[in-house]
């Protein structure tokens, strides 16, 4: 589905909306480029676009199917950039991935979006930056990547908060955080798989090998690369922290087991005392002088209570109760 | 055993079937190449093929023996590519590996297959793509690698499902998944060993150093490389997840042990009470007023029941029962 | 907020203090450079500075926002160096990070500081080293980096002491150090993330690609690089040690659990004896000769005491008590 | 001790056996090379060889002392290759390492063997391959390396079987495999240390920098490199598997502990019942109607048996017994 | 403190001892070089040396302060090499580190020693090797590095023995080796940090970029590099082994806990029997025929003994006792 299609000349949007045929013509004009936005196209639909703009068979397949790795590939003069979008959905603690395929040539940009990645705000913000738009289709590529990587930073922030919550669970009382740690680890791995290959792609874009990324934009792409490197470091640290949290959690579980065992043992020891003492005075010897004392019974009850209290006090002092 | 042998000219299959001698002659014709398919040949058999097409002694040994690593090697003008095929057999949760040796020169392709890797569908599909076949023997190499790597993605999908099942076992009730995790880890390692070296081989094929892989096919090989990179990332993630699952499982085992211990202790504590109380009233003191009360016995039974119920309620509330 | 601004000619400070306008003029003089120190500027404030000295839009954004990765970037003739400052706050065992952005061109240095990184002592010390200051703005860059990396060594020293304390806790009696180990690991990771990227930046500065770092200063930057490498090795070792400490701690917890279990069991065994013996003499058989002995009762008490003492002695000898 | 010494011309052995002096002369002849085999020589002995063939002081030291790392070094025109031989001794599950030092120049090969590495079969087999021998001393080097690396594959096979046995022990009943896993890990590490550096050495030999390894032999050395890569992958996998086996084993130990604890607890619970019930009827109340019933005693015995059986059945059903 | 200072000409020591002034003059003579040995100099002392031989400010600082990383740095024509010396002190199981700073130019060598690194034997041995000394100051550098790295091998040998002792402790009876393993790991990390950077330094020395290391000495430095690589592999293996030992130890602790638990439980089960049986015959039913039997009492005692012995035999057979 085509969602927006416009021609840009000297950094300004020329007309409100173009049909695909008009787009092809506008692109052919000197000093003008077209930005065509498509969302989750069918194979049919996108083949028409590909025919109009001369896209490579394999790139078309990639763009329609989604589930690609982030990458930069040049098919002749056309650059094909694939990038994953990521949103961290906090209540479920999952990372939701989308995908944007961007075809960039000297006179057009085609963006194919799958999943959660609204590009309308990117277009709106960019149309206000005439100075950037003047630099041609490469500026559109920059604006999209910048937007996508800023979303990564937000997602990383979401992870950060959940990792801190997990830490509180590990070292606090309460329910067992093992499953949560594991699930977070799974999501972090997925996030890493989606973002890590982009680093290489960005490096290539900064290398000056591609005509559609003019020298004047290199600093902008380098800036995106830098933000991505921050995301990468944070993801790596999440993995380290979750690994350590898993191990710390195991230790805490052992510690708590030990505390429970001590508490249980202490109570058992206290309960064994009356049984043992009562057992002795339950023996049937003929000559047991205490049995005949008139205060024998209360004395023994007092003895039992005294020993139990003494044990309770000792265990309390030793921290077992 | 030769399974199929045909000559191709300008992207079209010339005759239904050739004998090996005819194949050698057909290959010598200008603008024609031969595709000879062999399955698990004996040394004898394959030496005849090698003699006809001038293959190197060492390559022959590799092709007959199987158990090679994936690789690309050039013996003069002939390229020797070895690739592992993989099928994930789900009920047994094992990865079954096969092997395909491909000899590619400007005028012939020889494919030697061991194990589970039927190439007939690849040939059938490729024969419909005249545009690709026109590009020569390199197109055959592409078609096979593309097919093999797509099978890897299917195998990775199979692993994915089993890893998710294992997770349910780790965090759910039921039997001990330790052995299953370990066995999956073993299979993942084997899968990785079979697929990882192919990445380097594919990079070499894209490097433009080999005449049999013309420039026009580079984008196709790059596409295969890309799919392989996705497989590699998933395998790496499986390893990470299984590692974490093993550790999480240990923690869960400890947790469950603790829960059992608490439950056992609670019941022991409840059982100790009647013994202790009964012990006291089993003492033989002469002066124990309660013994003479007419309701002494039912009162003590009630006391015992009350204490037991109280303990039961406390343990229930504390989550030990 | 501008904190200090002065012009330097032939290694000497020319005037006490300049306004920003004067600074721009002074920088334009031959053989003179200006050092402008700014602390946590607002976007407004810093845009004025950027306009005066012609700084790039993206660099300005970085300098104002902080939270950048350490890096070296050249925007035309101007070098933009970002470096993290680190202070280890011992009682809380946290690493406190600040940030310094340094813009270096042939005729000016602008330092933008965020957080804990007083540069006044650096300026004071450098003004006494005429021989270094003569080498131009690059010397200022060196002096700052040298200062920052020396602070890293101090922070590493702080970590070292806490790691040693943690070791004593792991192998001594006392409270559970799991949380402390985990928290230290978190801080070490943050410290590493802040310092590691600087290595690459320093290597670039030594590469001779930047005019503002003259050959004569290479040895000085190499010296800083060397100190940073020492910090990196120590951080890596802290991570290894804390990892091992976490595992050793788990083993110690298990050991202590075992000791507790033995101790508990020994006491339970000792307590079971009187109950069992007393039980036997509490049986109601008509023919139990011992019951009629006049010394039966004291004999049994002595027997109980003897068995208990014997068990106590055995457990003591076996190290269970 | 010199074990065999012969001259080769055009791929054929010239005379049965040469003295060292004769060897030196034969080497000097055009188109002839000498292969001198030495076993564990004394320093004296080997200094004579070194003087005759002009070997470097340091190389001599290496060859006599053994305990070198695998490596390729060129001393002028002479190549010095050191390689470790490995035999897996199965009953003891240890890897036994030997060492072969090979000096290769255009007109001689000197092989110095320490430990378990009989080169006689290599020589015998090579003497039948005139086509290889014709290629000069480099062919001898190839034949030895090929032989050594094939032995590695056998050793890896031996490890494989023991790793599989260990797996059965981890997941089966029976003795504790911890020590065996650890010892295997130690041997795998030693095997890896002995074989890994050879990869780099082989790469150098294939690089075409050494005159004694002619182009025609590159494919042969590449083949050895390939086999070595297979060994390396397997070793790496052994390490991974043994690591996981160690962790899985710990989990199994915990599982079994839990099972034991449940079994013990169940029996204790069953044993506590008669004590508690008997305790109640051992109380001395005057008014306990059951005591006077004529079937009271058998009824209580029946009650005890019933409760015990009920508990036994419940524990059985819950899988605790 | 200057410990030895001599001039060497054509590989021979010229005079017994020189003052520093004489040393400067001797160094200026053609074909002569001076070797000045200093031990732990004060800043004053070493500044005088530096002035005489024209050493760089930063190098002087490094040499006086010690605590540097191993490295090679060239300040103009002067090479500054820093190397750590290591001695393994066995009874304490610690690695003791020292440091040697070596300044090498075409006409002098200055060695600055801190800590445990007596260079007198190096000088003595080298003075007997005229052939090496003839090659100039580079030979002195070689001799020192060779000596230092040989000490590393000795230290590695010391570690090896302690690692083997630790293994015996892990798998044998006796005290808990956790702390010892951890401490060894700490020392290994320190040893690694001290030796690893030297590899890079040695590679640089072999690169042929430095005039003071003539081609004729490359093979000697390569030999040292090789020995260092052996040290590095062994250190890496120690780390792996200690890691595994820590985990194996945890498993052994769990195993032993399980054994203790079984033993304890078996005794408790045996002790519960007399209590339960005696309890039954302690009931006060009027109609308990056994109580009136004249052999009732001995029969019950026999029954108790029989059941206890039966249980003992069963537990013994099951390996719990």
Helix content of chain A: 55-70%
Sheet of most strands of chain A:
7 strands, mixed
Topology, number of strands of chain A:
7
Mean pLDDT of chain A: 89
The neighbouring-strand order within the major sheet of chain A is: 2-1-3-7-6-5-4
Strand content of chain A: 15-25%
**Which two chains share the most extensive interface?**
A-B, 56 and 44 residues
Figure out the total of helices of chain A: 10
> Between the first and last Cα atoms of chain A, what is the distance in angstroms?
68 Å
Shape of chain A: rod-shaped
Counting copies of identical and different chains, the oligomeric state is homopentamer
- Class based on secondary structure composition and strand pairing of chain A: alpha+beta
Unreliable spans of chain A are none
Radius of gyration of chain A: 35 Å
* SSE series of chain A: EEHEHHEEEEHHHHHHH
Features:
homopentamer; 321 residues
Present the secondary structure layout.
5 copies of one chain form a homopentamer.
Chain A: E1 2-9, E2 12-13, H1 20-28, E3 32-39, H2 43-53, H3 57-65, E4 71-75, E5 78-89, E6 94-104, E7 108-114, H4 120-127, H5 130-133, H6 137-171, H7 178-206, H8 215-280, H9 289-292, H10 296-317
Parallel strand pairs in A: 3-7
Antiparallel strand pairs in A: 1-2, 1-3, 4-5, 5-6, 6-7
Helix pairs in contact in A: 2-3, 6-7, 6-8, 7-8, 8-10
